[in-house]
Amino acid sequence: MTLGAAAAPASSGEAEAALVARAAAGDRTAFAALMQTHQGYLRKLLSRVCRGDQGRADDLAQEAFVRAWRALPKFRGEARFRTWLTRLAYSALSAERPALPLADDAPPDLGAHSDFATGADWRIDLDRAMAGLSEAQRHALLLCYGADLSHAEAALVLGWPLGTVKTQVLRAKARLREQLQAWEPTP
Questions:
Q1: C-alpha separations of 41 from 48, 95, 125 in Å
Q2: 23, 92, 171, 172: which has the fewest Cβ within 10 Å?
Q3: Residue 105 CB neighbour total at 10 angstroms
Q4: Is the domain of 128 the same as that of 93?
C-alpha cells in the first residue's frame, strides 16, 4: 500500500491517520485499506460477542463499516480509529436490541476448520466459563483482552464510567480463575 508521492509516515499510527484523513475526504481506496486492516479484528471480536454466530458477526461488522464511511468526515481522532470503529460496531449491536445482546448460552461451534481447534478442550472450558459471566463482565473482558483495548477505550466503546469497566474486568477475571482452576499447572 502506498501513500502517494508524499514521504512515508514515520509510524503505523501516522500511516493510519493519513489513511483516515484521506478516507474522510472521500477517498474510497483509503477507506478500503482501513477496512482491510481492521475487518479481521472486528469480525473476530463480534464473533466472540455473538458467541460464534459468524453470520450475525459479519452483518454487524458490515453495518459498522457502513456507519464508519458515513460518519468518517466527523471523526475527530480523539480515540484510535480501532476504538471508534469498535464503538460503531457496538452501536449497531445495541440497535438490534436495546441492551447489549448476546446469543443463547451455548458455546460456539468449534469445528475442525476453527482456528481454535488446537487445544479445543481448553477452548470449550473457557467458552463455558465465559458463558457464566454477566453480560457486563463478558463485554468488559472481551474488549480489554480480546480486542486489546485499554480500560479507557473500553469505557468509551461501552459508554460506561472507567471505574465500572475496571470493576467488571476484575470480577470477570476472578470468576474465570475460579471456574478454570482445574487448568492451573500443579507444582
A1: 11, 21, 23
A2: 171
A3: 11
A4: no
126 with 90, same domain: the answer is: no
> Does a structural domain hold residue 108?
no
Work out the burial of residue 117: count CB atoms within 10 Å of its CB; fewer than 13 is exposed, 13-18 middle, 19 or more buried: exposed
- What are 75-104's pLDDT values in tens digits? 998 899 999 999 999 988 888 765 444 433
Rounded-to-integer distance, Cα 184 and Cα 149, Å: 26
Contact 31, 38 (CB under 8 A): no
Contact 50, 104 (CB under 8 A): no
Grid cell, residue 185, equals: 499447572
What total of structural domains would you count in the chain? 2
Question: 182: number of CA atoms within 13 Å, CB side?
Answer: 6
Closest of 94, 85, 43 to residue 66, by C-alpha? 85
Q: Which three cell numbers stand for residue 54?
A: 459468524
